[in-house]
UniProtKB/TrEMBL annotation:
Name by which UniProt lists this protein: Transcriptional regulator
Record-linked InterPro entries: Dimeric_a/b-barrel (IPR011008), Tscrpt_reg_AsnC/Lrp_C (IPR019887)
Domain (Transcription regulator AsnC/Lrp ligand binding): residue spans on this chain: 6-76
Amino acid sequence: MLTAIVLIDTTPDRIPEVAAAVTAIDGVSEVYSVTGKADLVAMIRVREHSRLADVIADQLSKVDGVVRTETLVAFRAYSDVDLEQAFALGLGD
């Protein structure tokens, strides 16, 4: 499973509509309204690398109200269990 985090800038008056439209795209697992440099953050989870382009470039970026996107592709996931094990080994010292 490939995971991408997409930071989305929108026109200010379309944030709820953009969030709803992005949520409806197949491959988008979650959409969050956030503070900071982006208006929304979308979590994309797909099985094949080529699907990232389908979801992000061909659909998400064309949603009315999307001004700009920045995509971060995840290399590795760390769960709470993994972090607890790392600290137990002394890696946090």
